[in-house]
């Protein structure tokens, strides 16, 4: 059996809301994941229904989802049972309006960043409020947030410098240029990138449209872009005038990256696009040299994905989004 924990798929046990089995692969590169064989509704059906999930994060066996339909953060254990819920809609303490970042650290603490209020909320592993604080107004151009295992946060900005590092307490520590030296600063699509953070300061910076990804460590810069196995076309940009304002719109249906996770030396990438098959694939790459290692084919289209510490969590389905948690009996998916 391979020593690579992410290749130990033959003995994976998939959970939520039930058990699954692994289907035989169709070829050597794509491994098909079977759907759950039965459903379980711990604590009632309401506990398992997601209305409008927007963000997902996992670490230490905790899976946390921000459900915009309830304006609430919901935490599940690795067996798919709802552990706690926090928040409601609004702009006051304990309320959320426009969260753009969600992270879980190795202690189980949860951090949520609301772009509208620039408020960073921190909860403990039981969903109890630890702190709330506002970021400086100079960071009002934030487009996303990623979390490191030690609790530090990376804020992605539209303006220069591209990345801001926050301490575990939410204080700005340093600013960094974009990890890719070829980043198209002048283009409207420059905001279309994400950062997958792993242990020991490992980072993978992904272009959401076209190109590929850059790998390294916190603070590194590189001119080498690892290409995706299937090139992603750049979406069209429409520019028009609305009164005195000049408006730029990016094609929202373009094929791009929906989510990513860095698990040890493997980068998992969930794509989105116009076809259902494209939204069912999680591609796997070597984070060090960019080599394509194969794909997982989900039973249905997915909109969110997170992975860490032996857990792969996805939100699948178009009509009724379902949280699916997959865990490994034989060994962790990564640490």
Structure description:
The chain is 0% helix and 47% strand. With 335 residues, the protein is mainly beta. The strands form eight sheets. Strands 2-1-30-29-28 form a five-stranded antiparallel beta sheet, with no helix packed on it. Strands 3-27-26-25-24 form a five-stranded mixed beta sheet, with no helix packed on it. Strand 28 (302-308) and strand 29 (311-316) form a beta hairpin. The two termini are 19 Å apart.
Overview features:
335 residues, mainly beta, five-stranded antiparallel beta sheet, five-stranded mixed beta sheet, disordered N terminus
Average pLDDT, all residues: 79
Shape assignment: globular
Low-confidence stretches: 1-27, 36-47, 330-335
- Note the beta-strand portion: over 45%
Read across the widest sheet, the strand sequence of neighbours is: 2-1-30-29-28
In helices, the fraction of residues equals under 10%
Q: Calculate the terminal CA-CA distance, rounded to whole Å.
A: 19 Å
| Helix and strand element order | EEEEEEEEEEEEEEEEEEEEEEEEEEEEEE
Count of alpha/pi helices: 0
Q: Nearest-angstrom radius of gyration?
A: 19 Å
The main pleated sheet reads as: 5 strands, antiparallel
Structural class: mainly beta
How many runs of DSSP E, i.e. beta strands?
Answer: 30
Question: Summarize this, please?
Answer:
The chain is mainly β and 335 residues long. The protein is built from no helices and 30 strands.
Task: Furnish the topology, listing elements before pairings.
Layout: E1 12-15, E2 19-20, E3 30-32, E4 53-59, E5 62-67, E6 72-76, E7 82-86, E8 88-89, E9 95-96, E10 99-104, E11 110-114, E12 119-123, E13 129-134, E14 142-147, E15 153-157, E16 163-166, E17 172-176, E18 193-197, E19 202-207, E20 212-217, E21 226-227, E22 237-242, E23 245-250, E24 256-263, E25 266-272, E26 281-286, E27 292-297, E28 302-308, E29 311-316, E30 322-328
Parallel strand pairs: 3-27, 8-9
Antiparallel strand pairs: 1-2, 1-30, 4-5, 5-6, 6-7, 10-11, 11-12, 12-13, 14-15, 15-16, 16-17, 18-19, 19-20, 20-21, 22-23, 24-25, 25-26, 26-27, 28-29, 29-30
